[in-house]
Amino acid sequence: MDNIIKMTFLSKRCNIAAIRNMLGALLIENNPTITFINELKTVVSEAVTNAIVHGYDNRENEYVDLNIEITPEKISIDIIDKGKGIPDIEKAKEPLYSSKADEERSGLGFTIMELFSDYLEIESKVNCGTKLHIEKNW
After folding, report:
1. Please, how many CA atoms are within 13 Å of residue 110, restricted to the half-sphere of its CB?
2. CA dihedral 3, 64, 81, 36 (to 10 degrees)
3. Is pLDDT of 77 > 90?
4. Average pLDDT over every residue of 125-134
5. Which residue intervals of 51-119 are DSSP H helices?
6. pLDDT exceeds cutoff 90 at 106
7. Owning domain of residue 116
8. 15 tagged catalytic
């Protein structure tokens, strides 16, 4: 079934759980496996967490955009922030790398996103923000 959802929410960590729950409820209509649901919820959690923690440095008065498109073939998700951007995307994608290593971040966010997605595209410009485009086939 085709569906589109567009939403904007404050960059508060408590919103991550709300987004996960909404995503799970949205997917049920397409009869996905539990593994599919859990993988996609994990990918979105990682992406939203990156926007909040890295893009906005945990400032809770900023906004994150979430766009979801569901088609019979796949689900596509865009997560967009207008934060500080990623100066070196390839470096940021390296396993165990974190720009916040002093905060005990694992540095596995992009690795997890790539593992559980069928397609991941990262667009970022320093001081302008980051857009992640994620696709997962049914």
Report:
1. 23
2. -50
3. yes
4. 98
5. 89-92, 109-116
6. no
7. 3-137
8. no
Q: 66, exposed or middle or buried, with CB in 10 Å at 0-12, 13-18, 19+?
A: buried
Q: Is 137 a catalytic residue?
A: no
State how many domains the chain has.
Answer: 1
Question: What is the residue whose two structure tokens read 């408590």?
Answer: 14
Between 14-27 and 34-50, two packed helices, what is the crossing angle to 10 degrees? 150
Kindly name the residue from 38, 58, 69, 105 that is annotated as catalytic. Answer: 105
Residue 108 has pLDDT above 90, yes or no: no
31 noted as active-site residue: no
CA–centroid distance for 91 within its chain:
18
- β-bridge partners, 133: 78, 121
Q: What is the CATH number of the domain that holds 70?
A: 3.30.565.10
The CA-atom distances, in angstroms, between 7 and each of 4, 36, 65, 93, 130 are 10, 22, 6, 26, 16
What pLDDT, in 10s, does the model give residues 4-23? 999 999 999 999 999 999 99
Residue 100 has pLDDT above 70, yes or no: no
Q: What is the DSSP letter of 52?
A: I
